[in-house]
């Protein structure tokens, strides 16, 4: 595995990195002056490009449901929110009306002079509360959106966000819900296709993350079968928790496909990185059940069928619990001073 410092030394930041860094700096300075609590929510999956000038890449299933819903609930608890998400994944507020849903709520009325567009009366009750919350979050500048696509973009943005969050000390929460790839192709090992080879290549790739994924896979192409070697991504939770934001309340998520490994793996992670909380979930049941694993305890949060049918989202109690723990964490830090 590459060491985390080598990773940054050998991979260039994305083109929009300096713009995002300025936005993060401005947002954090403003909220720190106001003594606000702040949360970095990471959301969605990272890609692993297979070549320079990327046409093909490895992706994963994450839609950003957990992160985008959680961001809304943190706003309800008066946290300033940095929403660091995969480009084009679900976002707070707009997530409620995806695809054609939004157009289906609109009516258009034409007369000879002009056209008027209006929300259908039976959609107002659904749309108005979401729009009102969105407007408040934007007008009070309580949310900042920054996005990534590849695992390298994600790593650069994560470190830049941490640099800005360090000043908040105990008032910062890191809520790391993104599904970050465990492997990647280092810059110097990437395929550099000739323009002709690119044109010839007709195959599309979509590797699904799986427990059995071996770190070396063959990449087929129209011209034969080049072999690609996938390297392990350094575990950034190590420098993050011990060096970048050592005083923050760091929460990581752990996704498993095997229920029997859930708590063992979560506890391993806590022992290794010494952060505050792991929220463990199983792929198939993640929308209605999670397990909170702390250094001393583990317990389950779940939604009943009735609660799910009523439209309750599991992110609401998850965030309420994290906020409660964060409050206790701040109080005990204050008592020590
Ligand atoms: O984005 P989503 O709602 O579809 O999925 C959420 C999740 C399963 C990616 C998240 O809850 C999670 O477990 N993230 C960490 C994944 C990991 O173990 O790296």
UniProtKB/TrEMBL annotation:
Gene Ontology terms describing biological process: coenzyme A biosynthetic process
SUPFAM superfamilies, alphabetized: CoaB-like (SSF102645)
Xref: Gene3D superfamilies: CoaB-like
Transmembrane spans: none
GO-annotated molecular function: catalytic activity
Tree of life domain: Eukaryota
PANTHER family hit by this protein: CORNICHON-RELATED
Name of the molecule in the record: Phosphopantothenate--cysteine ligase
Upper taxonomic lineage: Eukaryota, Metazoa, Ecdysozoa, Arthropoda, Hexapoda
């Amino acid at each position: 595995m590459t060491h985390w410092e080598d990773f940054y030394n050998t991979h260039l930041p994305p083109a929009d990195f300096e713009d995002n860094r300025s936005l993060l700096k401005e947002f954090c300075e403003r909220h720190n002056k106001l003594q606000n609590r702040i949360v970095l929510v990471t959301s969605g999956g990272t890609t692993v490009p297979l070549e320079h000038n990327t046409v093909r890449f490895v992706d994963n299933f994450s839609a950003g449901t957990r992160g985008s819903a959680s961001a809304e609930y943190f706003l309800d608890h008066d946290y300033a929110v940095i929403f660091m998400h995969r480009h084009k994944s679900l976002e707070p507020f707009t997530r409620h009306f995806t695809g054609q849903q939004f157009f289906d709520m609109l009516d258009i009325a034409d007369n000879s002079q002009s056209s008027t567009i209006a929300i259908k009366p039976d959609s107002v009750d659904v749309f108005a509360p979401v729009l009102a919350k969105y407007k408040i979050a934007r007008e009070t500048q309580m949310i900042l959106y920054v996005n990534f696509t590849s695992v390298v973009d994600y790593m650069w943005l994560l470190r830049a966000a941490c640099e800005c969050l360090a000043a908040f000390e105990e008032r910062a929460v890191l809520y790391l819900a993104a599904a970050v790839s465990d492997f990647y192709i280092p810059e110097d090992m990437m395929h550099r296709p000739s323009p002709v080879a690119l044109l010839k290549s007709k195959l599309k790739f979509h590797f699904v993350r799986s427990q059995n994924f071996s770190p070396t896979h063959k990449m087929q192409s129209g011209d034969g079968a080049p072999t690609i070697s996938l390297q392990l991504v350094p575990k950034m939770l190590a420098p993050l928790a011990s060096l970048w934001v050592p005083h923050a309340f760091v929460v990581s998520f752990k996704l498993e496909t095997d229920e029997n490994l859930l708590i063992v793996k979560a506890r391993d992670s806590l022992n290794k990185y010494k952060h505050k909380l792991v929220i463990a979930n199983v792929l198939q049941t993640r929308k209605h059940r999670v397990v909170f694993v702390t250094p001393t305890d583990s317990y389950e949060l779940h939604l009943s069928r009735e609660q799910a049918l009523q439209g309750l989202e599991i992110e609401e109690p998850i965030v309420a619990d994290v906020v409660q723990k964060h409050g206790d964490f701040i109080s005990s830090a204050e008592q020590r001073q």
